[in-house]
């Protein structure tokens, strides 16, 4: 439950926020698979309340039927199958904490009736007895004080109807909800709002999940990869550490940690437990996420696509460094933080990895697109030969498997840098792509423990090489 069952040579996950199942399947085949990304995190695929097209309406479950604006059951299944076929795993965003916001009734995105006033969800079915309202003692019924662990877990998060995971019936329904994805070939879960559930209940639920599906190509012994969303930036009684016994946890301190060091990259050398963060095996790390890039869920300065230069250097660092399991956010442009996704999917494969229709596609950016290849090929090594240039420049190796140099300065960074890579000539994956017998971009020569680098500024201020991608 702590290890992602990535295909050999693949690494890192991309959150394709609000992409349709059909678009993700194509992305796996044309981009994520060939570029050896480990997995895609998909937006919640289950039936949701239709509020008004906002991105967040998908965090309001109505039933566990797979039908909403990303697609239906068959399209979901087709996506997982096609992604697995090219070595890319699917991690599903699941919402076991709650159903939709209180009040009103209607039909969800899959046509299922619900009555949020009388707490009736016949599609599951859940009714009043399955909810936590009787265990909540705040006057509003909502969480009013994050300093009180009881109300954080038993009261409603922003009026979302709170399920009681302590009952056998609810546990059974949640296990079935998650297992349906394992049956379809998914390899893990991003579990929403875990701070708002009791750790003991989650331990039981995750413990009952099936092993990954043999019919989807897994060995039969692998556990689903679990990463739980717990926003712990200190100052509250509930801590991320309470959740590490049965899966990984999102390390939100990392967003602030890297975000406040864009102009002093050298400080990032020992980011991790030395900074009071979760252990490397317990954490999922990211530069920004779908909430904090738009002012939801947690504060502080986070670097997003709007600071594209800093995002490139920090994402390269995150994917290259050995602390935590990294996730890259892939976004769409917005002016209103509530705004849902563009009406058309990204496309953009006409002659390269462009991106169209209002999507950002950070994962396709020149600096970032080959980081899956790098990450996948340095698995099992630690950071070695850390070095620094004079102008916000850092370089390091991953044992004898890889080397990267990040130029956070204002001019080209060239010269001879110590590395633990073996002698050879390698494709600079930050500047171009490997081809059958060579590289489309510049190469980096290593000889006698020295790499000859020339890292530009501008569009792609990073260079990285791996023993798996040589120039000849
Ligand atoms: C929508 C409407 C609501 C309406 C509701 C029901 O916006 O007005 O009441 O429907 O009708 C998303 C949106 C919500 C949306 C919801 C459902 O963000 O706006 O509500 O879908 O449609 C807490 C949780 C965390 C959660 C985060 C948003 O702990 O789990 O709030 N994130 C997840 C998802 C998110 C989703 C949900 C959960 C719900 O990623 O997309 O919501 O499924 C503190 C606490 C945190 C708390 C934040 C925000 O953070 O520590 O636990 O997150 O506050 O309230 C400093 C502190 C930091 C603190 C921060 C902000 O930085 O260090 O700890 O300040 O105060």
Describe the protein in words:
This protein is α/β, with parallel strands linked by helices and 472 residues long. The chain has two domains: 367 residues, TIM Barrel, CATH 3.20.20.80; 84 residues, Golgi alpha-mannosidase II (Immunoglobulin-like), CATH 2.60.40. Helices cover 18% and strands 21% of the residues. It has nine helices and 22 strands. The strands form six sheets. It has an eight-stranded parallel beta barrel with strand order 1-2-5-10-11-12-13-14, surrounded by five helices. A hairpin with a 2-residue loop joins strand 3 and strand 4. Helix 1 packs parallel to helix 2 and helix 4 crosses helix 5. The chain is globular, with a radius of gyration of 22 Å. The chain starts with 10 loop residues before the first strand and ends in a 6-residue tail after the last strand.
């Amino acid at each position: 439950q702590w290890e992602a069952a990535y295909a050999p040579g693949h690494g890192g996950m991309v959150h394709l926020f609000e992409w349709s199942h059909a678009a993700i399947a194509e992305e796996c085949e044309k981009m994520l698979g060939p570029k050896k990304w480990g997995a895609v995190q998909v937006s919640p695929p289950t039936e949701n309340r239709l509020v008004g097209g906002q991105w967040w309406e998908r965090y309001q479950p109505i039933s566990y039927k797979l039908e909403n604006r990303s697609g239906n059951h068959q399209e979901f299944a087709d996506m997982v199958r096609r992604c697995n076929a090219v070595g890319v795993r699917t991690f599903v965003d699941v919402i076991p904490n709650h159903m939709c916001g209180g009040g009103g009734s209607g039909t969800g995105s899959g046509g299922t009736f619900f009555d949020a006033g009388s707490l009736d969800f016949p599609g599951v079915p859940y009714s009043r007895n399955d909810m936590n309202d009787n265990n909540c003692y705040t006057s509003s019924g909502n969480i009013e004080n994050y300093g009180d662990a009881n109300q954080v877990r038993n009261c409603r998060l922003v009026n979302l109807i709170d399920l009681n995971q302590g009952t056998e019936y609810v546990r059974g329904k949640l296990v079935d909800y998650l297992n349906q994805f394992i049956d379809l070939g998914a390899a893990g879960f991003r579990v929403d709002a875990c701070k708002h559930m009791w750790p003991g209940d989650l331990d039981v639920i995750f413990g009952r999940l099936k092993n990954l599906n043999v019919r989807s190509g897994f060995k039969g012994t692998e556990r689903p990869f679990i990463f739980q969303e717990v926003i712990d930036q200190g100052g509250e009684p509930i801590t991320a550490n309470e959740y590490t016994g049965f899966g990984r946890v999102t390390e939100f301190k990392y967003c602030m940690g890297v975000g406040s060091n864009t102009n002093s990259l050298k400080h990032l050398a020992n980011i991790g437990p030395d900074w009071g963060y979760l252990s490397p095996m317990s954490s999922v790390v990211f530069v920004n996420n779908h909430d904090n890039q738009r002012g939801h869920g947690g504060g502080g300065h986070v670097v997003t696509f709007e600071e594209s230069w800093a995002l490139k250097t920090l994402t390269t660092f995150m994917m290259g460094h050995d602390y935590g399991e990294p996730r890259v956010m892939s976004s769409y442009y917005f002016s209103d933080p509530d705004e849902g996704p563009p009406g058309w999917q990204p496309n953009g494969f006409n002659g390269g990895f462009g991106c169209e229709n209002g999507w950002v596609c950070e994962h396709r950016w020149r600096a970032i697109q080959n980081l899956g290849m790098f990450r996948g090929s340095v698995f099992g090594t630690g950071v070695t030969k850390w070095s620094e240039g004079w102008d916000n420049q850092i370089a390091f190796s991953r044992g004898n498997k890889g080397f990267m140099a990040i130029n956070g300065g204002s001019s080209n960074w060239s010269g001879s840098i110590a590395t633990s890579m073996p002698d050879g000539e390698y494709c600079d994956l930050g500047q171009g792509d490997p081809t059958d017998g060579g590289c489309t971009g510049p190469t980096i020569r290593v000889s006698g423990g020295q790499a000859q680098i020339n890292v530009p500024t501008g569009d792609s201020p990073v260079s990285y090489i791996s023993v798996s991608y040589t120039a000849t």
